[in-house]
Amino acid sequence: MGKRINHFLTGLPMTILGGILLALSFFFPRMGFILPADPAWGTVIICGLPLLYLALQRIIHNKGISKISSALLISTAMAAAIAIGDLFAAGEVAFIMEIGAILENITTDRAKKGLKNLISLTPVQGRRITASKEEIISADMIRYGDILRVLPGEAIPVDAIILWGETSVDQSIMTGESLPVDKIPGDKVFCGTINRFGAIEIQAASTGSDSSLQKLIQMVKDAENRKAPMQRLADKAASWLVPLAMLTAAIAGIITHDIVRSVTILVVFCPCALVLATPTAIMAAIGQATKRGIIIKSGDVLEKMGKVNAIAFDKTGTLTLGKLQVSDVLSFDNTISKDELLTLTASAESKSEHPLGKAINAYAAEMKLTLFEVASFQMQSGKGITGEVQGKKLHCGNKNYLLEKGIPIPSNIMVQLESMQAQGKACVMIADDNHCIGILALTDVIRPEARQIINKLYYMNVKTLLLTGDNQNAAKYFASQAGITDIKAELLPEQKVTCITEMQAKEEIVCMIGDGVNDAPALKIADVGIAMGSMGSDIAVEAADIALMSDDISKIPYLKRLSNATVATIKFSISLSMCINLSAVACSILGILNPTTGALVHNAGSCFVVLIAALLYDRKFE
Length: 622
Fold this sequence. Notes:
Blueprint: H1 2-9, H2 12-30, H3 40-61, H4 70-83, H5 87-106, H6 113-120, E1 125-129, E2 134-138, E3 147-150, E4 159-164, E5 167-170, H7 172-175, E6 181-183, E7 188-189, E8 194-195, E9 200-206, H8 212-226, H9 233-256, H10 259-269, H11 272-291, E10 294-296, H12 300-307, E11 310-313, H13 315-319, E12 325-331, H14 338-348, H15 355-366, E13 374-380, E14 384-389, E15 392-397, H16 399-404, H17 411-422, E16 426-431, E17 436-443, H18 450-459, E18 463-467, H19 472-482, E19 486-488, H20 493-505, E20 510-514, H21 520-525, E21 528-532, H22 538-543, E22 546-548, H23 556-589, H24 595-617
Parallel strand pairs: 11-18, 11-20, 18-19, 20-21, 21-22
Antiparallel strand pairs: 1-2, 1-3, 3-9, 4-7, 4-9, 5-6, 5-8, 10-22, 12-17, 13-14, 14-15, 15-16, 16-17
Helix pairs in contact: 1-3, 2-3, 2-5, 3-4, 3-5, 4-5, 4-9, 4-10, 5-11, 5-24, 9-10, 10-23, 10-24, 11-23, 11-24, 12-23, 14-15, 23-24
C-alpha cells in the first residue's frame, strides 16, 4: 500500500498540483485572501511524504553510512519548519527536491525496454518429429537430440545441426550478416534465426538457457546490471552534509537561544540546487543533441563519452549503408554486352525470393532496363535458379551450382571470382547449358563519410577498430576503404563482448557503435553504446546509450565536445550552489534570514542553476 501511495504522489500531475498549492500559499495571504487551511499543507503531503518514505526506507534497508541520505536532511528540515509553523518553507524544499527527481528520471525512464523486445524474439514452439507423427510443441519442451522440422519463414527454435535439407538462413540476429547464409546437412543453425527457403530437419543441440539466443538475452541482462544507475551527487555528499547541517543548527540554536535560526539553517542547508545541477545540465545537453538528431538516454554517458579513447565499429549498417547494390557486371561472351547480361540475369531472377535476386532486380529497375518473361523457373535453395529467357536457358547461382549442372569454370574466370570474393562481394555466376557467360558481383556500400570520420578520430587520439560477424575478406575490404587497420571478423555476439572487455581490462574507455540485434550485448557492455537509430533494430537502439537517428557517424566528434561542455557546466553549477548555500547558512546564523526568506534565497540558487544549464542548450559546437 505504501509503495502504491508513494508512486501516485511522485507522478508529474501530483507534483504540479503541489506547486500550485505552494504558489497559493505564498500569494493569497499577500493579496488579502484568508483560507481555512494553509494550501502549503497539500504541498507538504504531496511532495514531502515521498521524501519521508525514501528516508525511512534507506534507514531500514541500507547498511552503514548509506542510511544517511539527502532525503533524511530534507525530511528533518520539513519537520522543523512545520514545528515552528512555517509551512511555506517546509513545502518549498519538498517541492524543489521533487522537481529535481522528476528531471533526473526523465533521462533514464527508457531503460530495459530493449530487453523486453529481445525476449520477444524467443521462439515459442517447434515441430517435433517422432516415429509416428509430427507435432507442434512448446519450445521449452524441446530436449537435446530431438528431431525437428523447420519450414520456410519459420524461426529455428533451438541451436541445432541440420540433418536433412538445404536452405538459406537469415542469422542477422546473431551475427549481423547482411545476407542469408547458405546451409547444408552438417551445418549448425542458431536459435531465433529465420529459415528463409527450403524445409529442413534439424537435431537439437542446445536448448533452453543454453541456446545462443538465451545467452544473448542473459548477456544484455548482465550488462544492464553492471551499469548501475547514476547516483545523485547530493546523496553521495549526504554522509557528511546531514551531520554537518544538524550540528551547525544545534550549535547556532544553543549559542543564540533562537530555534528559528536553527530551523533556517536546516532549510538553507537542503541541497536542492546541488540536486538540480546535474539533471538540468543533462536535460539541456540532451535537448541540444536532439536538435542534431541524436538521442542521449542517460546523463553519466555524457561524461564517459568525453573520456572515450577507443571506438569499435560494427560493419553492416554502421560503416556501410546496409544495402546491397550491383557493383560489377562481367561478361565473358563477346556477343553479350554488360547491359544485355544484366537484363537476362534480372529477368531470370525476377521470380526469385533470394536477397541477391531482389537486389539484382532493384538495380535493373534503377537502370530502367526492360525485363523479359522467365519460363520453366526452378530454384534450388541456397545454390541458385534456372529459367528460360528469350528461349535461352540460364543458370544463375554460386560456383557449386554451376558445377552440379556440369558447366565447367575456366581458371581465368575462377581468378576473377576469387578476386571479387576477396573484396567481400557476393557473386552470382551466369551460365547457359555449355559455359559460364558472366558474373554479377554485389556489395554493401561504405558510407561516404566513413574515412573522414576515422581520420578525425585518429587526430583526436582515438583508437578505431572493426568488430563484425561478417567473413574475414569482407571485413578487410571495407576496413581498408574506411582506413581502419585493427580488424576482428566472424564474431558471434559473445565474442564481441569479449573483445570489448579485454580492451576495458587494459584501462581503455570503449565506445561501441552498431545497429543490429547481435550488437546489443556489446552496446551494453561498452562504456558508451551508440546505435544507428534510423535503420538499426529496435533492440540495438534500446540497448545503446546514444542513438544517431540520422545514422550520421560524423556526429561522433560533436558528441565528445558536447559531453566535455556538459561536465564543465555541472561542475560550475555545483560550485555556485555550494557558495550560495554557505552564504545562506552564514546569513541564517546571523539572523538575517528566517525560514521563509531562507527558502526563497535557496530557491533563487536553484533558479540560477537552471538558467546556467539552459545556456548549454543553445551553445554552438563546431
